């Protein structure tokens, strides 16, 4: 079975937990967007993520990305989920 491409939105503790599990299972995280570019760059280095996006739109417009894990504060879940779904991405968000 083909490994699907993943990107993350957010890089807090929930994102770190999920990133660790994906990496441990042999999966690659291909991209990351966070409102804090410096923190995102550190997270990307830790988990071997190649691309750090400067905007949610940049992530959504990347045709290589198939799946997006939403790990942002609850108050912005809806806007990030909507942006990803409208761009044709599969979305995993553990909280409503």
Question: How would you characterize the overall build of this protein?
Answer:
The protein is α/β, with parallel strands linked by helices. It has helices at residues 13-24, 37-47, 56-60, 77-86; strands at 6-9, 29-33, 51-53, 67-70, 90-92. The chain has a five-stranded parallel sheet, with helices on both faces.
- Widest beta sheet: strand line-up: 3-2-1-4-5
Report the end-to-end length measured between terminal Cα atoms: 30 Å
Helix content range of the residues, please? 25-40%
Structural class: alpha/beta
Please describe the topology of this protein:
Elements: E1 6-9, H1 13-24, E2 29-33, H2 37-47, E3 51-53, H3 56-60, E4 67-70, H4 77-86, E5 90-92
List keywords for this structure.
single chain; 96 residues; alpha/beta; 5-stranded parallel beta sheet; 4 helices; 40% helix
